[in-house]
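Ticket reopened. Same input as before:
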Amino acid sequence: MKIKKLGEDYIIDRIRESFETQHPRIIKSIGDDASVTAITEKRCLLLTMDSLIEGVHFDRRYTPPYYLGRKAVAISVSDIAAMGGTPLFLLTAVSMPEDTEFELVEELYRGVKDSTTEYRIHLVGGNTSRADKLSVTTTLVGEAEKQRIAYRTGARPGELIYITGTPGDSALGLEILREQGFGALEKADLKRAVLKHLNPTARTGIARALAEKGLVSAMIDTSDGLLRDLAHITEKAGLGATVVCERIPLSQEMREYHISRARKLELALTGGEDYELLFTSPPENRDAIQIMAKRFNIRITPIGTVTEEKGIKVLHMGKELSIGARQGYQHFVSP
Amino acid sequence: MKIKKLGEDYIIDRIRESFETQHPRIIKSIGDDASVTAITEKRCLLLTMDSLIEGVHFDRRYTPPYYLGRKAVAISVSDIAAMGGTPLFLLTAVSMPEDTEFELVEELYRGVKDSTTEYRIHLVGGNTSRADKLSVTTTLVGEAEKQRIAYRTGARPGELIYITGTPGDSALGLEILREQGFGALEKADLKRAVLKHLNPTARTGIARALAEKGLVSAMIDTSDGLLRDLAHITEKAGLGATVVCERIPLSQEMREYHISRARKLELALTGGEDYELLFTSPPENRDAIQIMAKRFNIRITPIGTVTEEKGIKVLHMGKELSIGARQGYQHFVSP
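Engineering reply: fixed in the latest deploy. New output:
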């Protein structure tokens, strides 16, 4: 059977099954934003690994090397953030064709450098290699207090589902880039969405604060699209969710862009690479969460509810939309 | 300037320069087999990242997926071993074309699984992704006591240079595979060299013992070839070395294979991927090192001396061979 018929989730599930392991120091293995292993009695190591591959995750025509370097760092920082952890040490494996101009390499690492400086993390190793296509794989090591780690599991029926920021903007940004090229960066009404795609920001501060205050029962970063990432939270817990379309906040850029309302909704529900936080929390935390949103000046919106009934229901004007819960980006599955 | 004109060493040096960083917890950043960061006052985290890329590091025709999985683990374990550390937690990023058969994926991870079991390490995360070519990138986390870590730097003039095993066997194994295919695995006189290439063993036990007993002043694993890895030890220390060809131990497979004596020497001096240990030690440790060799049943041979004079001299029958010190595998440099 070819893997494109099976899909990434199937493959990861099979890998996870065959590597189920018992070790006193392993608290969480494959299947969350980062793995969790014990360092001392109270402290844990968080480990995450991500790849950005030319032709799969990015198109060189729309990806300046500087931003590629920044994004490679940010998406790993986002994974550590979504666990409520502090990112610390980075390793990068960069592969590229041998006829690559050194200037591209310098630009890429300048992006890595600026991003590591901003997140106060440190590049400590990695490797470079020849390959047919450009790719950047990052490993990020973080730490967290054992008692304050936010896992994907942990949601309970009746809890509210929250999202930071405005979903779908990264996918919109890519659509704008494809239509208008880098000229879009000069346009005030488009720039923010394009930069959301090229240069996402990991929600480190607010994620850690939410986890430290015990305000999240489950948390994930939105890399695969809102619905698919929500399914990651609900499915493993044997639960479902109801999402109300009218509650999903759309950015001004999204609202004003010349695409149909249906397409906007599709981008918001299934567009990947936002690297926002999606989390669940009991209703009584509502006010505390909004106080946190104000403190960090980040929009946090309740968009639905965790349900005992499995599957993800999307309500639009009171009617259920027929959107597969797993819609969103998945590797290997052919469209 | 295209990177193939500059070479991997140049690029890594530039990256290292631009990321020179001061952080109380970073003990060793880019430039050794693994980075070293402090966990507690006495314990350190070791981090290493390696890539095996189709068409660059391996040819699918000569690389059964099971062995690819094993090798991906072993080469990272070798890096942690060469620091004198204990390998612990593994992450893998596997990329492959979407029309890959799932059986290949299963075989690859079966190799990873068997190898992790043998080294008593644990796969805790990573990712899978679509790509044009098959590749496996591994990150391995290890630990070591701060006082017992073996760095690449630390060699002093007059010290002896030692190597474990018999160098060049991996390169010989690849040559045999190219000439004779997998049939060579059925031949008693060829099998060991072929398996040395397909299925290298990291020298974990003896490396840790040598480091713990304080018997090494500098240590590296031989992944790029004896001379190039030796240069990694001497150059940063501002030193040189003399290597005596007659002292270099050749395996029975190498001695008996139908290639010229000159070619055998070339394989031993520059063939990569042996994953043996190359280390330096004061002359007075000679006996202690041989006792260790016996205990682990691993051949350890002194092959030369660290010199104050820079550059690497290779002596053959008392005459200097004209082999560039940096000869060996280097990414990006066109032959």
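The CA atoms of residues 184 and 190 of chain A lie 6 Å apart. Chain A is about 35% helix and 25% strand. Please confirm and we'll close it.
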